[in-house]
Structure formats: C-alpha cells, structure tokens
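Homework-ish question, so no full write-ups if that breaks the rules, but can someone show me the predicted structure for this set?
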Amino acid sequence: MSSTNRQILLASRPVGMIRDECFRSETTPLPEIRDGEALVRNIYLSIDPTIRGWLDDSESYLPPVQIGEVVRCGGVGEVVESKSPNYQPGDIVFGMIGWQEYSVAGRDGQEMNVLPKGLPLTAALSVFGVTGMTAYFGMLEIGKPVEGETVVVSGAAGATGSVAGQIAKIQGCRVVGIAGSDEKCAWVRDELGFDDCINYKTEKIPERLRESCPQGVDVFFDNVGGQILENVLDRINQRARVVLCGAISQYNATEKVPGPSNYMQLVIQRARMEGFIIMDYIPRFGEGIMKMGGWVGEGKVKFLVDIVDGLENAPSAINRLFTGANNGKLLVKVSDEPS
Amino acid sequence: MSSTNRQILLASRPVGMIRDECFRSETTPLPEIRDGEALVRNIYLSIDPTIRGWLDDSESYLPPVQIGEVVRCGGVGEVVESKSPNYQPGDIVFGMIGWQEYSVAGRDGQEMNVLPKGLPLTAALSVFGVTGMTAYFGMLEIGKPVEGETVVVSGAAGATGSVAGQIAKIQGCRVVGIAGSDEKCAWVRDELGFDDCINYKTEKIPERLRESCPQGVDVFFDNVGGQILENVLDRINQRARVVLCGAISQYNATEKVPGPSNYMQLVIQRARMEGFIIMDYIPRFGEGIMKMGGWVGEGKVKFLVDIVDGLENAPSAINRLFTGANNGKLLVKVSDEPS
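A: Not a homework solution, just the prediction itself:
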C-alpha cells in the first residue's frame, strides 16, 4: 500500500471544453481513518457527462465542486483498512470516491455500498450502475414505452443510450438510435438489435427520421439536446413522451444555448417533456439491478466498457464523452482489480 | 332575415401581426340548407389566439385555413331555419361558425351543440366555453395543483389565465399572476383574489418572482412563452409541472423563436412541461361546466367579457389579443341576441 494519495483537484473552472490547466495534481499523505470509517483503494473512476456540470459554478442537483477540491465522481474501490462495522478489508465498495488514489468510506456520514461478491466491477459501474439504472428508470418510468410504439434514442452508442434502447426493444417497440459514427451505428444496429441507427454527423436527421419512423415518434430518450431534440420534436406523435436524460451537446457551451424553438409541438401533440435525476431512484436500484441481471443473463442487454488507464488521464478522458471518442461506458482505471 | 351572407375570407397569409389586407369581405347568397342541416344566424364570434395559428400554412391540431376560405372560429348563433331533427328554430347553438353572418349546422357531419335555455351567451363563450374549460382541464388535469403549493399564471388577466388562477386559489394554493398593465394586475389581485400579480412590462420578472414566490414555483400555467417561460423555469421546484397552454408572445413571430435556453431545469428539478389541446376534453365538458357553474354561482370564479361590435372588426379585434388591449374574453358581436 502506498503511503501517499495522489489527487486531482479543480484548479480553475473550465470555460467550454475541459483543458489540463483546469486541474492540478497533488500528493498528500494517506488519509487517516477514524472510528466509523474505512480506507478505500480506488480502482475504477466512473467518467460521466454530469461531472462536467459539477465543475461549473451554478446550482444543480448537487453543489458545484469548489476550486481546490478533489473532483467529484463515482467509482469502485477495495477496502484496505476499516474502523467501521460496515466494511471489511477486501470488500469492494461503490460510492463517491473522487479523482484520487484513495478515498474514505463513512466520512461525514457518507457511506459507500458494498458490492456483492462475484459481480464484475466493470458491470457494477455500467449496466448495474448509474448509467444502466438511468436507462432502466428513465425509459420505463418516464418514457413508458408500449408495445408497437416507436422509440428514438440519442447518444445511442453511449453507456446509457445503448441500454435504454435495448430495454425499449424488450418492451416490443420499434427502436431507432442516433449516434456519431458509422461504426457506432453498425454496433447499435447489428449487435444491440436496434431497428435502425442514424449517423447524425453524416446523414440528414429529418429525412432519416421520416424514413426510419414512418409512424412518428412516441418516446424520445434524449441524451443530446440541441438540434437533435428539435428534429425529433418535429416528428413526435400525440401523447409522446420526451425523456430528458441529458444534453451532452450543451455542457461545454460558453454562451446561453437556445432551447428547442419548436417546443410548442408539445401543445399541438399533447405531449410531455420530462426530466429526472437518477439519484431519486436509488431506493429502487435493487429492483432495477435484478431485472437488468436477468436481461444480461439472457443476452437481451449487452454492454461495452471503455477503460482509460491512469488517474492522470481522467481530465482528458472526460472530453472523450463530448467528442464522442468513447465506446460504451467510460472508466478510468486507477489501480488493479484484486486478483 | 337578410337574404345575403357577409363573410370574411382569408386573402393572404399574414406575416407577423394580422393586417387588413390579409382578408377580404364577400357577400354571398344565404346558404341553402339541405336535409339534416339548419341555418344559423351568427351572434358572437369567439376571438382566440389559436385562430392566428390556423392562418399559417403549417400543420397543427387542425388543418390551416386555406386562402379563399371563411376564417374559422367558434361562436354562438340562433337557429333560424331547420331541416334537422337536432335543431329547432330559436335554439341557441355553439359551434365552428366562422367569420360570417350565417352558418350551417350539420353540414358535412359537423353538428353544433344546442345550449341550455337561460344560459347567458357571453358566459357560454367564456367561462363555460373553450377558455373556461381550457383553464379547468389544463389547471386540474395537467397542472394538478396541491393545497399549499405556489402556482404562477401568465396572461393572468386573459380569459383563460384569469379563470385558471382562480381555480388554483380554490385548490388552496398561493397564486401569482403575470399580466401586462397595472390595471390588469390590480383587477387580478383585488377582484379575482390572486395573491400577487407582476406587471411584466414595467417590473423585473426575476426579482418579483423571487419576492412573490419565496417557496419557488410548483405549477406554471403558461399562456405566453418566450422570456416569461424562461424566467419562471429558473424558479421551479422539484417535481414542478409546467402547463403549456399557449405562447401568445410567439404567434406573430416572423422568424424561428428560440425555446427556453434553460429547459434543462426540467432535469435538475425532475420537472415536466406538458401541452394539451382542449378539444381532447370535449367529452368531459359536462363535468367541467357543472363544476364551474357551482363556482360561478358561489362567486368563487369571476369573469369578464370584452365585446367588439361588427363582423368587419374581427380582423382588428384579434390583434387586441396580441397587444394585450383586450380585457377578458374577447367576442365580436355579429348580430343581436334574441330578446
């Protein structure tokens, strides 16, 4: 075990895309744990678009990361020392571990969750983790797809979108993805079983939507926002549900981004646009994980993880989400999995 | 009875505000009625913002009015001749009568509704009509206000907004209006019993919202759109409901109007924005009218009508909705009520 803890702190707030200068590295002594706490060796950091939002100085569902603080993020690690009855050395835990080599479970009342033995760590951070649960509850609780309906998913090759679309397929829907490369579209169509996938970088979205959704769109699971949201709103059916999961096209915007100019489609089509925050569903994760476990076991839900090696690469890794360079759930590997 | 029928037809599609040149007047012979039809002497035309939308060549919940067609609008009239068992001479009927002196009930299967005897015609076209029912079903079915919540209504002095706010008061909510003059605000506050009313033309909406909605906003009943929608979205609470009733600030726009740049507030606050079309609730009007009748009888819902005299003034009357010159439900009087 190291005697130091390398950390990445927020040095200055990013304007637009994240640059290396926004962060600085610091090496501190290993945190000393007190009664009720456990020391955790961080293994995988979960790199999610929402982190970008926390770096801005604006109110959101969690307070912003302050300058000089360790960058907040979820992830998994191994308990290496414990003064808490909740954790045993060797336990694999999930929680807000941050961009650092070690974290403390149970500090300031912030407990972590011990993962069941035998669960692959990468699955725990993807399909059984926040992105998988976001897909599950967002699609089923907000989108409410009904057999025979048409469902469109943007960010279809992403960790959340890819699972959301597969869940809609399981419900018996026609599912059309929107993704950013021919390779991603091919994967979404051929591997995941979507009925069609539009490459928004090379194809004309309105035309392709008309073609691929001849009956209109009943559910739109949107991870992207911007022009794509507007294009799909133009095609929604009566009583459509637009699930606002994210707006990855906008997180790096340096100016106010206009909303969809055609939002009055919601009136004409008696439709709704609704947001949700996955944290609200944490008490129901057990239900979601069980269901998802069944689907993964039957091969009905497939998932992909994209692992970047080294804590020092976390800042550049997050930009991969916004350029679309990642393939599946993006993780940064900080240390080895226990053998 | 006249032997001719003066009509106002759409001559060219308006760009921006309606101008007189968009219409032409034509005098035709009285329509001859066939079996199953009745001739109706039009009395009041209901002048509503939605008419503006029908004049554009764009898909909506009803097809656009075509060039050369009589302008579509709802209203009431008196049956003067009938070859249908559904109508007796002397009946007062409600339906899509159009901008003309006479209309035909039962033509092409388009029946009209016979109003109960004794109901004041102006009430039938306002509080018991489309605007009153829009307020009723929009507020209660989409907004779902709960006792103790804060409700904001834009277009608060309008035919729909004024009733919507009073219904929220009946539910035990704090109700704040937004209107366009001090006189309107005073009426909304002092006569209708809203807790506060913001004059959006002279006051700073964000500051006044903070002041008048210290607990945030749970329901926003929006008739206006644009900047006002954005300002209120900034103040919504978790699980807020934004009822999209209309967007009167935009109907005359000649260019694409950006949507609310802060629509991601819906995600952060797990909130929803939902549109509706009152036509969908026609089967439930009986329920709404009964309930509204009780409230009007008890003095809990007050309403105002603004009558413009003469069919020829219909084109200029509709612009009053967009400049905010009207006071309450706007009607154009085409002929006298039966004595």
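Now go work out the reasoning yourself. Hint: The longest helix of chain B spans residues 130-143.
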